[in-house]
Amino acid sequence: MTPDEAPFPATERTTIGRSPDRGTRDRRVAEAILDEGVLCHVGVTTDHGPVVIPTTYARRGDELLIHGSPAASWLRATGKGTPVCVTVTMVDGLVLARSAFHHSMNYRSVVVFGQAEPITDHGEKAAALDAIVEHIVPGRTAEVRPMRDDEVRGTLVVRLRLDEASTKIRAGGPIDDDDDLDLVDVWAGVIPVRTAFGEPEPDELSEALPTPPSVVDYGR
What we know:
Elements: E1 23-24, H1 27-36, E2 40-46, E3 49-55, E4 57-60, E5 63-68, H2 73-78, E6 83-96, E7 104-115, E8 117-118, H3 122-136, H4 149-153, E9 156-161, E10 164-170, E11 189-192
Antiparallel strand pairs: 1-10, 2-3, 2-6, 4-5, 5-9, 6-7, 6-11, 7-10, 8-9
């Protein structure tokens, strides 16, 4: 087993206290969730207090790439070695039980802990930004104007190694108390949640152009 295939180590921060049977340290499971998602939430403590910011990201090998404006205090804080927590969650269903207490959700989530490192090399930063675009829309970088040097310089990019992470998954139907199973007149089950991508909508300058390969039949 190579290092990038080894399971995540059990740490105090990644040990699951509630429903530990739903957790897994399997790195491949975590990577699959990270690769499917497009939105993460970054939690960090800044000079103005703790913040949690939604943003795009990319997984590249054993690291997460996050970018933003150098003016963003939360992103500057991550680049100073401040501990961060990055969460990606996919909601798969609303679970309706026979009691209000046992209502739940089906989900897949990955929580990554660590210290982010700013990418300062110009070429590495440009490659990281391309990786983020490719994560969101595979094949897109080959269809558009490459980023200019000033655009790369004007963007802050940090990397967070996937060394400490916790993955938790819930699937299936409601888990009712035995006594509640007698409530045969109460409906219980799952309302599936699915992310659907609609028909591409070109802007005014693109109406006469064919839809590019990266956009045709887009899905995740």
